[in-house]
Amino acid sequence: MIAGVIDTSLRRASGSLFGLAYGDALGKPTEFLTVAEIERRYGPAGPRELSGEPALVTDDTQMALAVGWALRQSPTLTPEAVEPLLRERFVEWSVSPENNRAPGMTCLRACADLARGVRWQEATVADSKGCGANMRVTPIGLLDVDLDTLAGLAQLQAGLTHGHPTGLAASELTAYAVRLLRDGAMLAEVPGLLTERAHQQRLVYRSDWLGDLWQRPGVTSPEEFVARGWDECLAVLDRLTTTLAGPDDGGDPCRHTGEGWVAEEALATALLCAVRHADDPVRALARGRDHRRRLRLHRRAGRRVPRRRRRGRAGTRGRPMGRPGGTIRSSVVAEGGRTRHQALGWSSERMTHGHSSGLGLPLGGCFNPAVRVPSILGSNAP
Fold first, then answer.
1. Which one is the CATH code of 7-361: 3.30.70.270, 1.10.3720.10, 1.10.10.10, 1.10.4080.10?
2. 13 within 8 A of 142, measured Cβ to Cβ
3. Fewest CB within a 10 Å sphere: which of 20, 32, 193, 212?
4. Taking a C-beta distance cutoff of 8 angstroms, is the pair 62, 99 a contact?
5. Global pTM value
């Protein structure tokens, strides 16, 4: 499906993408519920079965597919080749009639400028490190590329919309985690390996991929810029390691590693759930549900809602702009033919929107490569 994926890892790659969609759909109905409301509806273990016929995913899975298609379409995996394709796919998503599912304002705002041809370093939302930066990075972790290319691709796809250095670093770490699991690492090993990677990369600014993104008021060097992101990732990985060293109290994982609104917390809390339930992927996905109560609690208490969760209505900014190449269509193709989006189950009849794969374990299928979600993607899914 994605060019460059190692043949012997196809089941793990497939499982990872299906696992992302599964976690996304499993968590979607709980997005704005409190923990008490979730437990009343689903019991103390949380949701364990997909709901709806078919089950519906969110913008997180849609944008992961956009990244995957851009990679597949690219003749080479270089910044010059990949950036225009990512731009096209992101803009295509932003103005699609299927983007009617409360997408994040950061992505909409950046895509609006990308559609106007603004340089991506200027179109990005410079102060945003929302989980949108790494919710869509899974396909990059599945590629058979060297680690420098993996890092550059991960940071580039994040930077098109989320320009904060922590979003860049967390996206690279998420892609690296997928790579580690695809290659056979044990889940329990991943936090330590990510910490080692973060220390190694702390002062590495990938100018060939990022250009002058680092240049902003108060920043004196690219190394200073990128170190800030790696330091925030290291801080949350330290909390993750400390938490995993103790017993599991069965409570809300967000108390330890954060609520998942921002990129580094989304990765750490997803890993916490995954490691705690390495033998029960559905339980790991269900455990990640608790963060969805936060937005409602923020609103009830009158506190500022994190940027990633300020939802906009698709089309209020994006739709009038148009996009190259028309719109995404979900028409049925005769004689068994499928559009490129139908081949991945991306159609208005099969998918909808919310937020869960930011904390919905894009890593999920890697520790259970047999994961299959036909009720999400339909019988025509590859």
1. 1.10.4080.10
2. yes
3. 212
4. yes
5. 0.78
- How many other β-carbons are positioned within 10 Å of the β-carbon of residue 267? 32
| CB distance 229 to 166 below 8 Å | yes
Tens digits of residue pLDDT in 368-378 = 333 333 222 22
The 10s digit of each residue's pLDDT in 122-153 is 999 999 999 988 999 999 999 999 999 999 99
Averaged pLDDT of the chain: 76
CA dist., res. 375 & res. 259, Å (int): 29
Query: pLDDT category, 265, cuts 50, 70, 90?
Result: very high
What is d(CA 143, CA 246) in angstroms, rounded to the nearest whole number?
34
Backbone φ and ψ for 192, nearest 5 degrees, come out as -65, -40
- The more confidently predicted of residues 298 and 63 is 63
| Distance from C-alpha of 106 to C-alpha of 261, rounded to nearest angstrom | 12
The HSE-up count of residue 302 (CA atoms within 13 Å, CB side) is: 0
Q: DSSP alpha helices (H): ranges in 165-262?
A: 165-182, 190-201, 207-210, 222-245, 254-257
